[in-house]
Structures are given as structure tokens and as C-alpha cells.
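Board notes, transcribed. Complex of a protein with NAP.
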Amino acid sequence: MKIGILGSATVGMTLATGFAAVGHDVFIANSRGPESLVARLEQANTAAKAASVSEALARDVVFLAVPWLKVPKLLTPNISWDGRILVDTTNIFVSYAPDFRIDDLKGDSGSELVARLAPSARVVKAFNTLPFKVMFAPTPASVKRVLFIAGDEGEAVSTVASLIEELGLHPVALGRRAGAGRQMELGGPLSSLELLTPANAGAS
Ligand SMILES: NC(=O)c1ccc[n+]([C@@H]2O[C@H](COP(=O)([O-])OP(=O)(O)OC[C@H]3O[C@@H](n4cnc5c(N)ncnc54)[C@H](OP(=O)(O)O)[C@@H]3O)[C@@H](O)[C@H]2O)c1
């Protein structure tokens, strides 16, 4: 699958190296241009390739892995999504350490805001409910860590669920973005909830 990743910090690099390791064709971009990524990708010994933002945005499945406040400027109206999948991994922080302030969306959901910025994309919310150091911490072989997903289009949700399984996690699709996506957001009941399931359980 042709995967694009926007953001090259913890989330972007983990997903880029993980998906490249299982054979996907991955482009990763940041705000400073592809040259700024070449040495890090070499060091990581990954087949993921450094790309420009527009190259990463043109892939079949695009992961949004940037700070929340950067999203509106990145998802410009001229991008032609044509039903391509946009995976929203963001959390709605308006600042990081030490104060970790959360955006006041006045009852709206972050993934719905993302979907409004990319109206012809199939937006799936995933990879946001746990810190990555927890999400990808080793587990005993008998269990897998659960990862929640929300999305309105079944086929897009299934595609993202398969990608999640390929990274060794157990996807659990919860329903539509407006409801389930909100429960997964900061302050929601599923944010920071870590669940383990028997490794032989089927995807749900
Ligand atoms: N870290 C976690 O454990 C975790 C877990 C779940 C969800 N999340 C969420 O996932 C998102 C990414 O988190 P993170 O911790 O990996 O890093 P982050 O600090 O939120 O994002 C930094 C990355 O975004 C890139 N970026 C910023 N503006 C950009 C733009 N206009 N175009 C392209 N790239 C841009 C930066 O590139 P430059 O360095 O070149 O500016 C950098 O690579 C956040 O929304 C976060 O809340 C994080």
C-alpha cells in the first residue's frame, strides 16, 4: 500500500518504520523538507523514504501526525482527496509540557473538524488513545494491546484495521467519528485506556 505520513516525530517515525518493515511503500514528510529526514531514516535503517508534504499527501492512505494547531494550515482546500483515506492520529493539545492544555471544541470532535477540512477524504480516527511508548511497549506473546478506531466508512475502517493488525495491535472499531471519535479524544472515557486481549481473539 502507498502510505504517506505527515509528521516525523514520535508518531510519524514509529508508523513510518513500522509500515515500511512490513512491506508498505512509505513516504514521510515534515515541515522542514525531505533533506532534514534523510540522515534519520538512514540511521533507522528503514525503507521509508523522505518526501515533501505534497508527495506524502498524494498517497492512498495518509496519516496525520502533527500538532493539533498545525492541522488547519496543512489540510488546505486545494488538496484533492477523492475518497483517499486520511488517518487522524492527533490529540487536541494546544500546548505540550509542562501545561498540556486541551483545546475547547465546545462539544465538537477533533476528527469531525479534520473531516470538515478534508471533505472528500474518508477520515478514520486511530492511534491517538495511548502514548506511543505504551502503545508499542512489548507484551507477552499470549496477549495483544487493543487499539480503538472510529470512522464513518466501513471499507476505510477495515483498511486501517488491517494496517493496525500488521503492527501487532488488536483493532477494535467503535463506530462513527462523531460519537466514538469523541470518546477516544482527550478527556473522553477511552483516552488513555489500555486494554489487552488474548492474542488469538478475532478483530472486532
Ligand atoms: N507522542 C505520542 O505518544 C502521541 C500519541 C498519540 C497521539 N499523538 C498525537 O499525534 C500527533 C503527533 O505527535 P508527535 O508526538 O509525533 O509529534 P508532535 O510534536 O505533535 O509533531 C511534530 C511533528 O509534526 C511536524 N509538523 C509540524 N507542522 C508540520 C507541517 N505543517 N507539515 C508537516 N509536518 C509538520 C514536525 O515537523 P518539523 O519538526 O519539521 O517541524 C514534527 O515532525 C499529535 O497531534 C499528538 O497529539 C501523539
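The chain has a mean pLDDT of 97. The pocket of NAP is lined by residues 6-12, 29-32, 53, 65-68, 70, 74, 89-91, 93, 128, 131-132 (CB under 6 Å).
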